[in-house]
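Form 12-C: Joint structure prediction
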Amino acid sequence: MIELAPKWIMYDEFWRTLKRRNLWLITLRYVAVIMLLSLILIGMLVEGLRMDELYIGGLAGLILLYNTIFHRAHPKLPDGYGPFHGLHFALLQMVADFIALLVLIYLSGGVDSPFFYFFIFHVLIGSLILPRHVINLLISVTLVVITTGSVLELQGVVPHLAIEGFLGHAHYTNETYVVVHIVLLAGVLFVSNYLANSISKELYLRERSLTVAYKKLEDAEEAKSRYVMSVVHDLKTPIAAAMTYLNMILDGSLGRVPEALERPLERSRIRLNNAISVVNDILQLTQLKLAEKPQISRVNLTELINEIYQEMRILFVAKKIRFSTWISSEDDIYVEAEQKLLKLGLSNIISNTHKYTEKGGRVEIHIKDEGESVSIEIADSGIGIPKEEQNKIFQDFYRSSLSKKKGIEGTGLGMSVVLHIIRQFNGRIHVESPSQLADGREQPGTAFFITLPKQYTPPTADVEEITV
Amino acid sequence: MPTIALIDDDPDIIEANRMLLEANGYYVVSARTVDEAINLVHEHHPDLLLLDVMMQEADDGFYLANRFRRSGYDFPIIMLTSLSRSVGMHLGESATVPIQDFLEKPVSPAVLLEAIDTQLRGRHASGAPAGRHATDG
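Section 2 - Result
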């Protein structure tokens, strides 16, 4: 097999683009068939025009036939590099088209044919896809065939066929015209190939360097996450050791604690506990960022939310918060996701509703089956989130001004974890405040809206994250 | 008096837990490295292992747990980890280690004592021998 792929195009995006362009050629060819059939129709309708309808019709049929073959073969084309790849396929298509075009030119007047312009168009498409030398070879062979054909027609060896009535006076017998025509054609074709190929090569190279840069960034991000994980782990180890002693002292396991020391020791324990929860949140988020493919199973969403509620029920009861769940269908609703991750994400939101809702408030969860997807709305009558901060709460370490003002402890990582998880399953999340559970201006409430596709597909490149 | 082996590379964790367990009537032996741990278990045949997940290497705990099980020891193993629960569980699942419990550091004395008590009582209820027929060397 001819090696058509130079080293600089060996990256995935090139092959995907190439496969699309191959299909594009196939689609265009159907248009060409329609144009040929229209030409025949015009020939029959316009008086004075005469052509070999049978031959041109036959040619249209032939093009349709090979195009159908290409069209059927296209899905079997590999998505990347292989023994027979997209470039070979493109070359086959180009060669077939050049032959068909040569036949059409012969049928429509040789050097007098109006269809020569189509060569420029083909050379441009070809030069975007195939290496320059291959197209140059194709142009050279074409020029040799045209020159030979023209000379044979000029000398009367081959009969001259034409669209009669199209040109008042035929030029194919005029030697000067034939020479000038072929020289100009050669110039236009070679220069077009050179220009289009140079531009497309430059674009491919730039695209590839962007791909490489992106990959490097991803690797750096991963290295950073691993570093953060080990640093944070090292931070936690001494805190955990200190806590072990402190717990024993406060428990009285080491003897009675003097009253004067009780409060300072208890405060130390509380502050160290806060430090540990910060460390745990960071570890969790880092682990999520490092995680590879999630382990997908069919998750019963109704059951999962009930499970989370049961685990936190005592907290809601203690704060006298009314908690209710509404489900749109009688049957259980399922989504394809990793149970543990989804539970972590939903737990984070539900635990926030508890944290930010005052005594006697309300929390409502609505689950709706939307056919292809499921929508989950989690609303509370809590302190709410100011409008200008709503798009920031999903950022790492962001804490709303209200939660800081009210002295509610937190790391600002909970919602980053949620966003990360929802995106893992190609879902969407947004926040609104006030919510429909608003309880006056003091308690506007917050509502989170999540949409999860029922069927799992791996997440696509994160466009939003790149543009930020 | 049941023997508990503490395996952790942090001397403070060992000392604090030793104080707690001895005060509650357990005989405590300890080791700080993988090699020490192997010798310790071979020598003392403990009734229960308190094992740290990450020592010199990130998975030393899993390595040891697997090694003891392959050698025929069937004492209960309680893993202690300072990685947060979801992360630790994740490691546990992927390594499929036959351990009995997973506790996150720092463990409060009450939780630790209860976990130990549950495991030891579970063993006596099922009538299993106290892991003294092992052949690890």
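Section 3 - Comments
Chain B is about 45% helix and 20% strand. The radius of gyration of chain B is 14 Å.
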